[in-house]
Inverse folding.
């Protein structure tokens, strides 16, 4: 048994307690098949150990200073409402600059919400894709034009540097990392124990302009559940509309209002996610995986997995199968 992966969560005054808790909860309860912890999570601050004031009346007594970053395998930087020059002009404070210098080359670095401003100010995001909270995205782009800001997604993954849009998307990002590190079974166990969805794709929209359907008539949730149970079948838009007892036009409109996606986009994403789970957790031939996910042929499966994940099904399985 190797030592647990060490995660250091770097906070400063004005931190958001919810975002601090995300990393401790998601990484902290991840276990292997023998229920041994897979991560060790510590909280540190850029200054001397001691009390750190949150953006509320919560004060955290932090036991570690920036030296904890020197031994971290992953560093997580949540948002702070008191980033000062980091947020205002894109410049690190002396304490934060010293803290970032302590991070070893090759360490995985993650941000949540406007924590991305600290990463960008440190030069970590130069030339890389990143996201932050939608309300701060334009300001971010003005301060850091060298960063490939995508203001519409939940999170970005550029290998050793990852960013989450904010608040709940930090949960999505941390679960994504657990899945990447240890496979779907471990991530599913963490999600189940945390009572959150096991996976939301990083490219999903941060928010939906009209999050609630029209008051008249039923929504599409029951039809989504019905379709998700029939991924191996040729589920059509017309069939989904009939199940919801709506016209195709009305169904399509309400579906997009509730999910932010078209029915076709949603169905494709469900099929790719099902394929990921089967590739990770079974030894089924690629042809059978394709049929069970509704892609029909191995060629179709390869095309969609390659387009979505950037790798072939075989390469994905080689990386993630049996990772736990």
């Amino acid at each position: 048994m190797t030592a647990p992966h060490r995660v250091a969560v770097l906070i400063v005054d004005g931190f958001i307690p919810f975002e601090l808790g995300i990393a401790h909860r998601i990484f902290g309860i991840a276990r292997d098949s023998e229920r041994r912890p897979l991560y060790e999570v510590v909280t540190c601050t850029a200054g001397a150990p001691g009390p750190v004031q949150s953006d509320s009346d919560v004060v955290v007594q932090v036991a570690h200073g920036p030296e904890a970053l020197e031994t971290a395998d992953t560093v997580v930087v949540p948002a702070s409402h008191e980033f000062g020059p980091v947020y205002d002009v894109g410049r690190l404070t002396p304490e934060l600059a010293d803290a970032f210098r302590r991070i070893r080359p090759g360490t995985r670095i993650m941000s949540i919400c406007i924590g991305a401003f600290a990463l960008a100010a440190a030069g970590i995001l130069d030339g890389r894709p990143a996201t932050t909270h939608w309300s701060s995205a334009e300001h971010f782009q003005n301060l850091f034009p060298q960063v490939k800001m995508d203001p519409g997604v939940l999170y970005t993954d550029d290998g050793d540097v990852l960013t989450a849009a904010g608040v709940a998307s930090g949960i999505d990002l941390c679960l994504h990392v657990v899945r990447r590190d240890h496979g779907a079974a471990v991530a599913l166990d963490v999600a189940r124990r945390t009572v959150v969805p096991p996976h939301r794709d990083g490219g999903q929209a941060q928010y939906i302009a009209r999050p609630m359907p029209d008051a008249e008539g039923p929504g599409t949730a029951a039809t989504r559940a019905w379709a998700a149970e029939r991924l191996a079948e040729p589920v059509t838009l017309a069939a989904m509309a009939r199940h919801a007892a709506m016209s195709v036009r009305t169904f399509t409109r309400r579906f997009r209002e509730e999910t932010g996606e078209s029915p076709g986009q949603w169905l494709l994403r469900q099929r790719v996610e099902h394929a990921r789970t089967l590739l990770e957790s079974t030894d089924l031939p690629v042809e059978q995986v394709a049929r069970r996910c509704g892609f029909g042929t191995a060629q179709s499966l390869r095309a969609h997995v390659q387009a979505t994940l950037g790798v072939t099904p075989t390469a994905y399985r080689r990386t993630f199968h049996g990772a736990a």
User: Anything to note?
Assistant: Residues 18 and 253 are 34 Å apart (CA to CA). The chain is about 45% helix and 15% strand. The radius of gyration is 21 Å. The chain has two domains: 5-194, 211-324.
